[in-house]
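Annex B, item 7. Sequence and structure tokens for protein A, then protein B.
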Amino acid sequence: MANRFRNKFLTELRMTKPIIQAPMIGYVTEQMVIAVSNAGGLGSLPGTLLPPQAIGESIALLRKRTQGPIAVNFLAHSAVTPETDLEVAWRAQLEPFFEELGVEQDMGSPSMTIPVFGEAQCAALERARPDVVSFHLGLPAEQFVARLRAAGMIILSSATTVAEARWLEERGCDGIVAQGLEAGGHRGAFLSTNLAEQCGTMALVPQIVDAVSVPVVAAGGIGDARGVAAAITLGASAVQVGTAFLFCPEAQVPVPYREALCEARSMDTVVTKIYSGLPARVIANRFTRTLHDAQDHVVPFPLGMAAMAPLIGASLKAGSSEIAPFWAGQAVGLGKSLGAAELVEHLSAAALP
């Protein structure tokens, strides 16, 4: 399949390697973003949990240490209203794990909030002007997308189906991240979370390439240069890689998580909603097995993350690998302990002429 956009896409983004580092909240450091961008890829800063003022400060700091392109990523979820009965029922499901760790549940205000993208974030980006703003779970309100594009930023967002890719293109996306079912972390689905409607990366990429008139980035199940080359052969202009970067020393990964990554293989991962209310691929553990049948009773995102936050923190503090979510894709078994810049070189070795 002819790759219509690859050279133009890389040139426009000032990339010399077709590698985008996934913006994994909580695990990506500024050092990783800098290393990836300096190596010719696109480093992605997770911006969802940053206060608006910190968005500009972080981008300014990155600009001092890399001349390469910088992306900032945000979740595009909507605010939800808590349902008391559902909240009480779900917290009852979690209570045995709180008791096990000797932690009391806070039934009052959530201990963790995930801001909805709005005016403050948009204004901060207009001032800081990163090269790329990427989204997950759809797009924010149309006026914000229009303002970001008018300020010269390239807009990317994730699609898990052809229908989502078309929806994103119609609303102003300059590129589509085709997220296959193998991908670790939260699924980017926003029109439907039915996993039966989603497929693997190598089946999804050519279908989206044929369906849209903007560049496509492949994501999910890509852990070495062979996967990168395959995705580009199928028409992707670049790839977005997450799990492989968690093995890098620049990643901020707790010891139990890093140990689990090194031991895991593809059959050890599972897609579950129990950690947040949204489908996400993680390394299976006792928590995912115990609550597997309770997935349809999880409070909606982001309230699910708020309910889990103190439990996750206590689990990691105890050094446990059986409760906290260890996000990982099905290519986890290909992970290597390389520096972020070296990983960019490794991934792109067979992908460029």
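Protein B:
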Amino acid sequence: MARAGESDDLAISAMIAILDAAYGDAAASVSCVLCAAWDAAAPIQECAQLHPPARAYEPGQFYKRELPLLLAVLSGRTPAPEIILIDGYVWLDDEMKRPGLGAHLFEALQGRSAVVGLAKTRFRGVGSGFAITRGRSASPLFVTAQGMKSDEAAAGVRGMSGAHRIPTLVRRADALARAALVRTE
């Protein structure tokens, strides 16, 4: 699903790709919103893809469910985005010894793109050093990164467009993935 006048086959030439996935009984979907800078107010391009139902969730193994979807939406797209922002964690601990979805994505992409994780809830083991607030919300977001410094990633997320806790383009990626599933039901 591309914006009017754009192809579903995106040529990722933007600096940042914001990815999200959604799951239903009959299908799974993944979205990609591309923007040129952290503070971009509007996407350059966007798409959503439908896929067969995702594999069942395995506690502690979330990446097995979502990683194939993220790789599919990025597949064959060149050049790779400089930064990929995902809904979730890159690291599940402060010592960067327990890889989360983002670390697995970074490894699968052979380090061609920095990966930034943006999580809405604290994962036990991740300290407050990764917490940022946005807008008027007192509820923090948790930022982790691989391929770039965590403080740079946190500053980038903090500076994203939108007056609310969740940045505008992150909300857009979520809405695209969910909308693609609605069409299957």
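Comment on protein B: The radius of gyration is 15 Å.
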